[in-house]
Specification:
Length: 463
């Protein structure tokens, strides 16, 4: 695995104290090397998993020419293209979906077919039933109703035998499950789930359930929201979660938490303790236990961030233990994780996020989520940015990337418009709930005039 120094040496103009989003993204792409473990699961277990190998089509899909609708199949060469005319045909049989194909059909004859029925030999065109006039055993097709080859699905039209149906690294979405089922594949090899340990840091943080019922929140304390945000974001990614609770800003307990997480997880995500603060010990413990860089990214919100890789194999030592200790909980509930993580395996990738909840979400969506997908072995492209008209002017200085919370709506003419939330403070979590996307104002971009098109990262599908 490359060291942080190796990666930095390959990046032009790398400056951890003034890092552009492009440079941060490129750095994390090199740091996050895909895991290697795989497993075989059934299709009903495969949703959201990452495909571990190419899937080759064992036969044509569909396996035979078939009718695209209910109607009558006939030889389309009987239609005159230069002088269209009415065509009268005799119905000589019926072909139903799921039944074997009919025998030879003579000129001026046709076969009644249902959607999906095998096309009888020599017939290549289907006229919808509602477009015909029938009289006894005969039908009449008005001139110009259909053209040769209409309403026929070709064998292999979807997939040819021997073609790559799905590629290694693809995320198995619902349509992919249907495609696998159409190939008769019941089990599929996927990458094992990514194991992510996460915890919040800080003496001011109170975890839900820590206070007796009815006791008010002490002055100076706040409830921990970041772990629940990360729980939702990581669950959407299909990760195996190791929730390590809230860790006080105390060196021994921080070290024990980091060591335990390193021995159990492929990635570690923390919130808080990475900015400049006299009482924060988190940065010192990170540096003690691994190869870690501390960034000041040219972005808003979310400027401070720690990234790196921690070492495995150390033994955590706690000075004090209690019945509610999150470390005791993890070691008893997740000790099976360490069975497949050896001292020789690469240590987990570390993402130290800011403490403010909006900054946590923005840095996760913009930087951590793509890196985790790479760790999972996924080859998925980032979600496309939508273009929307700004409903009001937006102030912006070039030199940093800004992510402003907004709400996208559709105007009467079908165009997209976005309204910016009034309060863009990094602690205003309600603005993330009421918004449905982030307006992305790029590094070199300046002020935006009302009506100007801006890029929007929509939440649906990623949050």
């Amino acid at each position: 695995m490359p060291s942080l120094a190796d990666i930095a040496a390959r990046l032009q103009a790398y400056d951890p104290q003034a890092l552009s989003m492009d440079a941060a993204t490129a750095f994390l792409r090199e740091l996050a090397q895909p895991i290697t473990g795989t497993e075989t699961v059934t299709l009903v277990q495969a949703l959201g998993r990452v495909l571990a190998q190419d899937v080759i089509a064992p036969f044509n899909v569909p396996p035979h020419d078939n009718s695209a609708m209910d109607g009558y199949a006939f030889d389309g060469s009987q239609l005159r293209s230069n002088t269209p005319q009415t065509l009268t045909l005799t119905v000589v049989g019926t072909a139903l979906a799921g039944a074997a194909g009919q025998g030879l059909v003579q000129p001026r004859q046709c076969v009644k077919v249902t959607t999906g029925a095998v096309m009888p030999e020599g017939l290549d065109t289907v006229v919808p039933q509602e477009f015909t006039q029938s009289s006894g055993k005969q039908i009449t097709i008005p001139a110009g109703t259909v053209r040769p080859g209409d309403n026929r699905r070709h064998a292999g039209e979807d997939l040819r035998q021997g073609a790559v149906a799905l590629q290694k690294g693809e995320l198995l979405v619902p349509a992919a499950l249907g495609l696998l089922a159409s190939l008769g594949i019941e089990n599929v090899q996927v990458m094992r789930r990514l194991r992510v340990a996460y915890f919040s840091t800080g003496n001011e943080i109170v975890s839900l359930g820590d206070l007796p019922p009815g006791q008010p929140l002490p002055q100076g304390k706040i409830y921990d929201s970041n772990r629940y945000v990360l729980f939702g974001l990581l669950t959407r990614l299909g990760c195996e979660l190791i929730d390590m609770g809230v860790v006080p800003d105390e060196p021994a307990q921080l070290e024990a938490a980091f060591v335990q997480a390193a021995n159990q997880a492929d990635a570690i995500i923390t919130s808080g303790g990475v900015s400049v603060g006299e009482a924060d010990h988190t940065k010192a413990i990170m540096k003690k236990l691994g190869d870690v860089a501390f960034w000041r990214i040219a972005m808003r919100p979310g400027r401070p961030m720690a990234v790196g890789r921690l070492a495995r194999g150390k033994t955590p030592h706690l000075q004090a233990k209690s019945a509610n200790s999150p470390y005791e909980y993890c070691s008893s509930s997740y000790e099976n994780y360490s069975d497949s993580l050896t001292d020789s395996s690469p240590g987990p990738v570390l993402f130290g996020l800011p403490g403010n909840p909006v900054a946590v979400m923005v840095t996760f969506l913009a930087l951590v989520r793509p890196a985790l997908l790479r760790l999972m072995g996924a080859s998925a492209a980032p979600p496309p940015l939508l273009k929307a008209h700004a409903n009001s002017a937006i102030r912006k200085k070039p030199g940093r990337t800004e992510y402003q919370r907004g709400r996208v709506s559709t105007a009467a003419d079908g165009s997209l418009h976005v309204s910016i939330a009034a309060n863009q403070g990094s602690g205003v979590l309600s603005s993330m709930v009421r918004g449905n996307g982030l307006v992305v104002l790029h590094h070199g971009q300046g002020n935006v005039a009302a009506g100007e098109l801006v890029d929007v990262m929509v939440f649906e599908g990623v949050m």
